[in-house]
Amino acid sequence: MQKYTLNVKTRIPSNKGALKQLRKGGEIPGNIYSKGNAKSISVSTIAFRNVNKEIGGGAGLIELKDENGDLALTHVKGVQIHPISRTIEHIDFHEVARGETFDSKIPVVLTGASDCLGVKHEGGMLDHKTLELEIRCRPSKLPENITVDVSGLNVGDSIHVDDLEAIEDVEFLNTGIQVVVSCQPPTVAVATDDSDAAESSTEGEEASEGDEAKNEEESSEG
Fold it and tell me: Which of 96, 124, 146 represents a domain boundary (last residue)?
């Protein structure tokens, strides 16, 4: 389990104007949800960005510490991003209890892509369909990511959730038949056929133009 620390400030729920001022001051408003309760907090934009860099796209738990020294072990449940500026506008943290299971989304990382049989020898293409998997586990068993080896895939092969290697004390919540990654047939052949058809059409047009020119010459001579 990867654990990170963030200092937060308790805040009073406020209107849009106050939240706008809070963001201008370099803070991101958020909530901590815990067993039906919610606590309004704010966190430094820079501090949260630095933690995100440390996590590096994987999964991790964040321990929040407020101004009174109270601690809450959490994971990020949701992030609201402004559609234009792409800045973070709000964060939802969910508190997890040590020793108790909780649900989380974990990124899927593909390994062996450069050695994939279907890509190297058959001109296929990898189609990474499931970027995240939902899991259930205790905080101490939270994996950073789920790795999937695709080196043995041939064209037409797929890896489903049921095919994934079991992880101790980690339960996959997605349906077993859900496709994680597949190797699709090449599309080059179709493009080549279209190109050949275009060349044939061009040659036909050129021949037709030649015949017309010849007929005109014969008519002129006559």
Answer: 96
Helix (H, G, I), strand (E, B) or coil at 4: strand
> Would the pLDDT of 131 be above 50?
yes
Compute CA distances 192 → 132, 178, 205, whole Å. Answer: 36, 33, 20
- Say what the pLDDT of residue 191 is: 46
- How far apart, in Å, are the Cα atoms of 48 and each of 88, 90, 146? 10, 11, 24
Q: Please report, for the domain that includes residue 79, its CATH number.
A: 2.40.240.10
Strand partners, 181: 128, 159
Q: Which two tokens stand for residue 37?
A: 């309760």
Same domain, 85 and 48: yes
**What is the value of pTM for the model shown?**
0.71
CA distance 60 to 208: 69
Total domain count for the chain? 2
Span 9-23, pLDDT tens digits: 999 877 888 888 889
Element (H, E) at 80: strand 71-81
Does 115 lie in the same domain as 77?
Answer: no
Query: Is 152 part of any domain?
Result: yes
| Domain with 116 in it | 103-184
Q: Which residues contact 80 (CB under 8 A, 6 or more apart)?
A: 88, 89, 90, 91
Cα dihedral 122, 127, 128, 129, rounded to 10, equals -140
Q: Are residues 86 and 107 in the same domain?
A: no
How would DSSP label each residue in 151-199?
TTPPTT-EEEGGGSPP-TT-EE-S-TT-EEEEEEPPSHHHHHHHHHHHH
What is the CATH classification number for the domain harbouring 115? 2.170.120.20
